[in-house]
Design brief:
Mean pLDDT of chain A: 91
Largest sheet of chain B: 2 strands, antiparallel
Pfam families (chain B): BPD_transp_2 (PF02653)
Distance between the termini of chain A: 76 Å
CATH architecture of chain B: Orthogonal Bundle
Protein name (chain B): Branched-chain amino acid ABC transporter permease
Family (chain B): Belongs to the binding-protein-dependent transport system permease family. LivHM subfamily.
InterPro entries (chain B): ABC_transp_permease, BCAA_transport_permease
CATH architecture of the largest domain in chain A: 3-Layer(aba) Sandwich
Mean pLDDT of chain B: 90
Strand content of chain B: under 5%
Radius of gyration of chain A: 24 Å
Radius of gyration of chain B: 19 Å
CATH class of chain B: Mainly Alpha
Number of helices of chain A: 13
CATH superfamily of the largest domain in chain A: Response regulator
Oligomer: heterodimer
Largest sheet of chain A: 7 strands, mixed
Distance between the termini of chain B: 37 Å
Keywords (chain B): Amino-acid transport, Cell membrane, Membrane, Transmembrane, Transmembrane helix, Transport
Order of helices and strands of chain A: HEHEHEHEHEHEHEHEHEHEHHHEEEE
Strand order of the largest sheet of chain A: 7-6-8-9-10-13-14
Structural class of chain A: alpha/beta
Helix content of chain A: 40-55%
Strand order of the largest sheet of chain B: 1-2
Shape of chain A: globular
Chain lengths: ~375, ~290
């Protein structure tokens, strides 16, 4: 009787165990899901859209080569609208519903900081490619959130260098206009601490996407600064330059931190000479080393490669390099561990390796708008 | 000179707020319905103007006039498709309908025009009138002048024309209007059409001065609502007066306090007015 019960139990349990093994294997053979935690609507949609296209191109190219370990790479989109309250929900969607294995984002510093506790709780690695607030690095890696990584350089790394190498040489007085976000306020604070010998006449914050800057620019004009530092992305920066021209704020030297010295900004100016000489520090620019990528991107999306699309591509490439290095199953944990080990040279960007605070280091660029084009003045190692 | 420059900045900004807010106030006056998609009317109108002026290369006055006429039709169509089915429903249903329409319009613009901002600069927006240190583009002078003219025409229409008088009557006593045979549906449709044409004018005047983006209507919607509440919900004159006051207060807040306090000042002003006059500056419960 006992033997019969044992056989019956085995006959029931074995197929069940076998089916669990089968299910596990079939799940492992499914696609690797990369969550895109970026704004595809809202005030920063232009940024998220380009990051997503860059990621898409990298994944398509890798999938043509057979994916990773025979598994295809696919994306799941969570639109964070560059709004922390929306971003928290879209991140929860990506980790809990879409079951992303790894995420790229959140693109905006305020959203990134809001989402960091969620990825830590869910134990999902996330790689940032454009958010620049230094708080993200301070709170990542050793002693902080071990699931957060950042590929792009942060404001702490770039702004002090730009202040000393460029601003200190070019002007004696300065007004600062910064977007009223974590990124804008943090960057303005770093500049203010690193401008010895320069008189900061005013620091004003504006709402991203605000339609009218004329009252603000009239105030700046009355202060008569030698330079105007815009901590802005190109849509707002273009508005400021256009409206500055209207209120007669001409002859002031322009500086930027965000995406000011870019081809996108030039497209929004009726006359490119209005931004002649504008200088900016940035974490990447589509230069000669990225010509092949620029051509492939143009062919795929019928538009020129810009900084955000390039960083999206490099972010995906970094993840791919990390995942290729994984010996066993590709899981959230193994991807995180592989990102900590990653040590790769990415064509068009540079050498990528994350430090203790999960921050990558590669050269920064000093850019300038000159005769309607963006030129690289200097490349500075970090 | 700085004071004068800021006064002009405030008047121009106030003029834009007024063109958006007048439509909201008028629509509420005759239908007691809050149109949360009204800011998106301005966005749609701006893209229409961009299509006519930049893509179709129509002369500026014709592109502007066509934008107004198309928006007049858009306003009427919006009333028939979105508003009419919910007009007798509770306010919550109306709120969801207009908010839903707002989200639909924003996302439609993203799909059709993309996320990259568009520009529709005119020769007037590129040339400035300079007097001493004061510099203002001819486009903004046109904006201030035509806004004043538009409100004069609107005032005359509401107070002199038969349809305008009917609109005032509906805003004051709807039941009495039904009893004497006034077609309420036609009045509401007219309010939406006029509201649409006003934002069409705002787009033709303002789009050359800034970026055209799918989200451009949102900040204006909030400011316009603050203006409408301050002026007295449903009062067009109140909305216009409040818009001008708000624009000027904002400009002087930036000049003498800080840009960081602009929004706080706007809503503090609104709250102060409501404490002082609970039904707004031009104080009746409804009525255009």
């Amino acid at each position: 009787m006992f033997r019969r019960v044992m056989w019956l139990a085995l006959a029931t349990i074995l197929p069940a165990v076998a089916s669990i093994g089968y299910l596990h294997n079939s799940q492992a053979a499914g696609p690797i899901k990369i969550g895109l935690d970026v704004p595809s609507s809202g005030s920063d949609a232009f940024e998220g859209t380009h990051i997503a296209r860059g990621v898409q191109l990298a994944l398509e190219e890798q999938n043509k080569e057979g994916g990773i370990g025979g598994r295809q790479l696919e994306t799941a989109l969570g639109d964070n609208q560059c709004d922390p309250s929306v971003g928290v929900n879209s991140a929860r969607y990506l980790v809990n519903v879409a079951q992303a294995d790894v995420m790229i984002g959140s693109a905006c510093s305020s959203v990134t900081l809001a989402v960091m506790p969620i990825i830590q709780q869910a134990q999902v690695p996330e790689l940032d490619v454009t958010a620049t607030s230094p708080k993200i690095t301070q709170q990542s890696g050793v002693g902080g959130n071990i699931w957060k990584f950042r590929l792009n350089l942060n404001d702490e790394m770039m702004d002090a260098v730009f202040a000393q190498k460029v601003l200190a040489k070019d002007v004696k007085s300065l007004s600062i206009l910064a977007v009223n976000t974590d990124y804008g306020r943090d960057a303005a604070g770093i500049f203010q601490r690193n401008l010895p010998g320069i008189k900061v006449l005013s620091t004003d914050y504006y709402t991203q996407g605000q339609p009218d800057f004329r009252a603000l620019l009239t105030k700046v004009k009355a202060l008569n600064p030698e330079g105007l530092l815009l901590i802005s992305d190109y849509p707002d920066a273009a508005q400021i330059i256009n409206q500055g021209h209207e209120v007669g704020l001409t002859g002031v030297k322009l500086f930027g931190r965000g995406s000011v010295a870019t081809n996108d900004l030039l497209k929004l100016l009726p006359d490119p000479s209005w931004a002649q000489g504008a200088k900016e520090v940035n974490f990447w620019v589509p230069g000669p080393t990225a010509r092949s990528l620029a051509n492939r991107y143009q062919a795929r999306f019928n538009e020129p490669l810009n900084r955000d699309a390039g960083m999206g591509y490099f972010g995906a490439e970094t993840l791919i390099a990390a995942m290729k290095d994984i010996k066993g199953d590709i899981t959230r944990k193994s991807i995180r561990d592989a990102l900590e080990r990653v040590n790769v040279t990415i064509s068009g960007l540079g050498h990528v390796q994350f430090d203790d605070h999960h921050q990558a280091h590669y050269p920064m660029y000093i850019l300038q708008i000159w005769n309607g084009m963006v030129r690289i003045l200097e490349t500075i190692p970090t | 000179m700085v004071i004068l420059a800021q006064l002009i900045n405030g008047l121009a900004t106030g003029g834009l707020y007024a063109l958006v807010a007048a439509g909201i106030a008028m629509i509420f006056g005759v239908s007691e319905l809050v149109n949360w998609a009204h800011g998106e009317f301005l966005m749609i109108a701006s893209y229409l103007f961009f299509a006519l002026y930049v893509l179709a290369r129509l002369p500026y006055p014709i592109a502007g006039l066509c934008t107004m006429l198309l928006m007049l039709a858009f306003g009427a169509l919006f009333q028939m498709i979105v508003i009419r089915p919910v007009v007798h429903r509770p306010w919550q249903t109306q709120l969801v309908a207009t908010l839903g329409a707002s989200i639909f319009l924003i996302n439609s613009a993203i799909v059709v025009f993309g996320t990259f901002p568009r520009r529709a600069a005119t020769p007037l927006s590129m040339q400035n009138l300079t007097i001493g240190s004061l510099s203002i583009s001819y486009q903004r002078l046109l904006l201030i002048g035509l806004t004043l003219f538009a409100f004069f025409v609107l005032h005359m229409f509401i107070h002199r024309a038969k349809l305008g008088k009917a609109m005032r009557a509906v805003s004051q006593n709807r039941d009495a209007c039904v009893a004497v045979g006034i077609d309420i549906q036609l009045i509401v449709l007219t309010a939406f059409a006029i509201g649409g044409s006003l934002v069409g004018l705002a787009a033709a005047l303002y789009a050359p001065l800034g970026n055209i983006t799918p989200l451009m209507g949102i900040p204006l919607t909030f400011k316009a609502f603050a203006v409408v509440i301050m002026g007295g919900f449903g009062s067009v004159n109140g909305a216009v007066a409040s818009a001008v006051i708000l624009g000027v207060v904002e400009a002087f807040t930036i000049q003498f306090l800080s840009s960081a306090y602009v929004d706080a000042m706007s809503f503090l002003m609104m709250l102060t007015v409501l404490v002082w006059r609970p039904f707004g500056l031009f104080g009746r419960q409804v009525g255009i």
